[in-house]
Amino acid sequence: MLDYGKEADRYDASRGGEPRADAAAAAVRGLLPPDARTLLDVACGTGLVTRRLAGPGLRVTGVDSAPNMARMASGRLPGAIVLGDSRQLPFPDDSFDAVSAVWLFHLLSGADEAAGVVAECARVLRPGGVFVTTVDKAAAHDVGSDIDAVLAPRPVGPAVDRAQAVEAYAAAQGLTPAGGARFQGHGQGRSPRSTIEDLGRGWFTRVPPDSPLAAQFAKELAALPDQDAPRPDPRFTLTSFR
Predict the structure, then answer these.
(1) Alpha-carbon dihedral of residues 24, 30, 34, 36, nearest 10 degrees?
(2) What is the rounded CA–CA span in Å between residue 104 and residue 166?
(3) Is residue 148 exposed (0-12), middle (13-18) or buried (19+ Cβ within 10 Å)?
(4) CATH classification number, 4-141+157-189+232-241, choose in 3.40.50.150, 3.20.20.140, 2.170.150.20, 2.40.40.20
(5) How many Cβ atoms sit within 10 Å of the Cβ of residue 152?
(6) Domain ranges of the chain
(7) Block mean pLDDT (10 aa), the chain, length 242
């Protein structure tokens, strides 16, 4: 698992920056009911997306457990960011008209933790509120490129954020599907060189950076053409529940 406190300073630039944030926020807003007046953005990170969710008639609050992330988000939304854990949200029941969680569930340890986070999101939702979250993040990055072919043999576990699983977590809290959307992860197409760097940073959680497998993947990636040419961008999926 990456240390997101240490990642804070380079996080935005390494993950699509402003264009990706624009696309993500627009997709989330499109799934919100027109009468929503308050929104909680869970695991808000640096606030790059959170800032774009705020607008006329919608008051947005962000929460993140990494102090450096929350600090950066506070610079973008002064007075609207709270340091807190998604597994135990520091808000009363029925506090928000909507809750968003963008790129959170794929980071969780397993089904029990994910179900607990969904339960917390449901708890702070007012009756009739809407919960919006990304699903199937890892699958979105597999765009059928030569890089994906090299990485295909890597060990993978069951995705905590697969759509069917998230729907089951939501159903256990009385939340039913209410719509979905897709958006482009601008600037996130992998190049061979950047993928080698990601291997060294532990991005692929089941491939330890100092392992023989990581070294073999790095060797094969280094042999690919166009080392700095990004392959196609991923397209991410959002789903909403009421």
Answers:
(1) -30
(2) 12
(3) middle
(4) 3.40.50.150
(5) 9
(6) 4-141+157-189+232-241
(7) 47 60 94 96 94 93 94 94 97 98 94 98 97 95 96 92 97 98 91 96 90 97 98 96 98
Q: Which two tokens stand for residue 21?
A: 């944030």
E strands present in the chain: 38-42, 59-64, 81-83, 96-101, 125-135, 177-184, 235-241
Name beta bridge partners: 98: 39, 130
Strand order in 177-184's β-sheet? Answer: 81-83, 59-64, 38-42, 96-101, 125-135, 235-241, 177-184
Q: How far are the Cα atoms of 135, 149, 205, 214 from residue 210, in angstroms, in the given order?
A: 30, 21, 12, 7
What DSSP line would sit under 146-190, residue for residue? HHHHHHTTS--PPPTT-HHHHHHHHHTTT--EEEEEEEE-TT---
For residues 103 and 74, is the Cβ–Cβ distance under 8 A? no
C-alpha to C-alpha distance for 188 and 14, rounded to whole angstroms: 8
Give the predicted TM-score (pTM) of the model.
0.87
Residue recorded with tokens 């919960």 = 131
